[in-house]
């Protein structure tokens, strides 16, 4: 864009060089969700071959949370009795940040199956600040160590 703006006449240098530029419309690809069969195959793989990460993958499929939102979840955000998860933050660029948009802050209902899976992996001695999803080394899963710690996904 800067290169194109520099092509403008010198008399325009006092103005914002980008003000009169044509901004191409970006087309967004349509979502391509997994089929029920694909979902079930992925979940079966994790349950049988990589059970340590099964709760994370299962939660992803059945809550609608963005991966970055699930990675930021702490046990204090989860109410297993009420079947609710409070989504107020996101994990990206190696740090906890606000959610993608203000509208993304929400309370998510957890299906009974998700509650059961989370209850089964909740440590006996946990604080409200402990991350729900951790890698095998005990650190929070993140975009840097997630791929290494999960190994080959499928």
Summed up, what is this model?
This protein is α+β, with helices and mostly antiparallel strands and 154 residues long. It is 32% helix and 10% strand.
Keywords:
two-stranded antiparallel sheet; 154 residues; 3-stranded antiparallel sheet; 10% strand; disordered C terminus
Structure description:
By secondary structure, this protein is of the alpha+beta class. It contains six helices and five strands, in the order ααααβββββαα. It has helices at 2-6, 36-49, 54-63, 67-72, 112-121, 146-150, and strands at residues 78-79, 84-87, 90-92, 95-97, 106-109. Strands 1-2-5 form a three-stranded antiparallel sheet, with no helix packed on it. It has a two-stranded antiparallel sheet with strand order 3-4. Helix 3 packs antiparallel against helix 5 (112-121). The protein is elongated and about 70 Å long. Mean pLDDT is 85; it is low at 146-154.
Order of helices and strands: HHHHEEEEEHH
Q: Helical region count? A: 6
**Low-pLDDT residue spans:** 146-154
Q: Give the helix level as a range of percent.
A: 25-40%
- What structural class do you assign from the helix and strand content? alpha+beta
CATH class annotation: Mainly Alpha
Q: What's the story with the biggest beta sheet?
A: 3 strands, antiparallel
Number of domains: 1
Provide the CATH topology. Answer: hpI Integrase, Chain A
Radius of gyration, CA atoms, in whole angstroms: 21 Å
Number of strands: 5
Which architecture name does CATH use?
Answer: Orthogonal Bundle
Shape descriptor reads: elongated
Percent strand equals 5-15%
The CATH superfamily is known as Intergrase catalytic core
Numbering strands along the chain, what is their spatial order in the largest sheet?
1-2-5
Tell me the distance between the termini: 40 Å
